[in-house]
Amino acid sequence: MNVNSRQQTLVKSMRQEANDVISVELVSATADSLSPFSAGGHIDVFLKNDLVRQYSLINDPADLDRYMFAVLLENMGRGGSAYIHKKLRVGDVIEVSEPRNNFALVESAPLQVFVAGGIGITPFMSMADYCQHHNLPFKLYYCARHPESTAFTALLADRLGDDLHIHFDEGDRSKSLNLAGVFDAHKGAQFYCCGPKGLMAAMESMAGDKGESLITEDFNPASVLKEDTSTNSEGFDVVISSQGLTVHVEQGQSILDVLGTVNIDVEKSCEAGVCGTCVVGYLEGEPVHNDVVLMPDEQTSHVALCVAGCRSSKLVLDI
């Protein structure tokens, strides 16, 4: 796996899906084919001014010639959604990462139950497509405030029929979806949730109370809890193998920040261990993996510099 490789893509189409929600369709800008993705997967999108954002792929994984994602305009965001809404145009060429998946289906489960809030519908679109193609039973609960601000309702209703339940609460918490009822109706299922922090927190609490299995996806750095970056109270040394340069990381510092002080530039985005942009290889050492990106087999050779610590006294990076 080359965690830092990029693909050149062309913006083929952009479409208004709801108030403040647009979809973007990408195709290859070269003779190379796009890399395949799995249901629930996402890509990093590299924009101007060093903006890097992560978006779930909303099209069918069986589509081998395009990627599609949707973006909610967040006026209080960090600039990525505003750039896509206001500056990205059909015909532009942009780079994207290889697809990754931290939200994969548990196909052995007897039933898949998806609970989406607002723009959190996006990963479930490819997951529902996959379930339909592979005869995996599923239910999709789509929570939103108002119809005019809710994307893809007609498309999903046409595709999913009785497996789709759309719930509008008009912004009134007293009208929220009865989550206890959802869990009680589908005991023993595999539950998934993506959406606002409040919804995911409520789902996590309810899953704990009911003794059910829940998987969540969250691209919001503010909601990621960083662990102590080092179990070594004296810190650790980081060696840049290509230069023979050694820097010291104190307890509480991030490797990424310390490398920046000696002009070692590593691409970064979330700085919370959820995107994978700053993942690099390592040759020696025992890193503490605090990210939610790397799989167990990948942790033996790669590390996310923004949140990683180190149990050993030295970590040698393959950069």
Automatic annotation (TrEMBL):
EC number of the protein: 1.14.13.82
Domain 2Fe-2S ferredoxin-type: 236-319
Class of enzymatic activity (EC top level): oxidoreductase
UniProt entry keywords in alphabetical sequence: 2Fe-2S, Flavoprotein, Iron, Iron-sulfur, Metal-binding, Oxidoreductase
Record InterPro entries: 2Fe-2S_ferredoxin-like_sf (IPR036010), 2Fe-2S_ferredoxin-type (IPR001041), 2Fe2S_fd_BS (IPR006058), Beta-grasp_dom_sf (IPR012675), FAD-bd_FR_type (IPR017927), FNR_nucleotide-bd (IPR039261), MRET (IPR050415), Riboflavin_synthase-like_b-brl (IPR017938)
Statement: the UniProt record of this protein carries the keyword Iron: yes
Organism: Puniceispirillum marinum (strain IMCC1322)
Official protein name in the record: Ferredoxin
FAD-binding FR-type domain segment(s): 4-106
GO MF annotation list: 2 iron, 2 sulfur cluster binding; metal ion binding; vanillate monooxygenase activity
